[in-house]
Amino acid sequence: MIDMILLYDFVLIAQKAGLIVTVFAITLGVAAYSTYGERKIAAFMQDRLGPSNAGPWGLLQPIADGVKMFTKEDFIPNQSERWLYILAPGAFIFVALMTSAVIPWGTTLTLGGLNMDLQVTNINIGILYIMGFVSLGVYGIMLGGWASNNKYSLYGAIRASSQMISYELAMGLALIAVIMLSGSLSLRTIVEQQTGFGWNVLYQPLGFILFFVCALAECNRAPFDMAECETELIGGYHTEYSSMKLGFFLFAEYINMFISCTVISCLYFGGYNFPGVDPGWLGGLMGPIVLFAKIFFFIFVFMWIRWTLPRFRYDQLMHLGWKSLIPLAILNMLLTGLGVLLWGK
Predict the structure, then answer these.
(1) Is there a contact between 119 and 22 (Cβ–Cβ < 8 Å)?
(2) Rg value, the chain, Cα
(3) CA 131 – CA 181 distance, rounded (Å)
(4) Whose CB has fewer CB within 10 Å in the chain, the N or C terminal residue?
(5) Cβ(286)–Cβ(278) under 8 Å?
(6) Longest C-alpha distance within the chain, in Å?
(7) Residues 215-268: tens digit of each pLDDT
(8) Which residues pair with 116 in a beta bridge?
(9) What residues does each domain of the chain span?
(10) Alpha helix (H) ranges present in 49-150?
(11) What are the residues facing 117 on neighbouring strands?
């Protein structure tokens, strides 16, 4: 009996370890090929070819970029805070990767008679977990900008921190409205409640717009890329970085974009649910297929916006966050509370 229990525990641990490694690999893969997708989309909008030499249709370009990052000269500025300078990129990408642990990628995957839950951990405060780690991300940027001992890096870090703090308030208020509708902080519960045509975006159109705009700002994506702003700050908080340290910063930004699109899909667009489609079909593979289709659509929208809209001025950025988004988010929260009180969901 004890042997059976130990064997069962070992199988569960092996399944979770396999899922963690798979999620980790997929996240890095999507981040790597998001760079390829961004360059191809930019090229299409500007009537260019984009990457085309490294492999067929340029598909090996992300690999070539990775090799370039690993083989470039790595330098540390003489007047920098050495250990904080080294720590910052690793801290930034670590925080970005940790946010995927509570995301439900599907229902249950059946392989060789074994059932695997497609979520690393289902905690009942999943939204708080994600928001907490998103908030920690600013420390990597601040450490990198300050430890570089470069005024442009420091300005970029200050801009990034004030921008993230400002837009996290509106994002949190938009999330409160979703929590009111679902009655839970668990992402799994929120996704399971959006079966059929019950997507939260139908009940929270304003909340979705607010969350989407805040997600752009949190990811330092255009038109909110004031932390990097090449025309003013050379490169912002990672101006003094090279080699794979720079690669970590850039990778973390694309990981944040991928996770943001995943959270948007789960909170407002049903996650792995789609009207008329059983997420458990094909042995449970249909759920991840549906979810990743939604994720890739939103990644495309993120990139489309970058190559369409001009960058805000910094004062416009802060005015939008404090004078428009936060009041609208408070109004949306109050209206949602009133609606739940009078009619329920």
Answers:
(1) no
(2) 21
(3) 18
(4) N
(5) yes
(6) 68
(7) 998 888 878 888 777 777 777 788 888 888 888 888 888 999 999 999 999 999
(8) 109
(9) 79-343
(10) 61-71, 82-98, 126-147
(11) 108
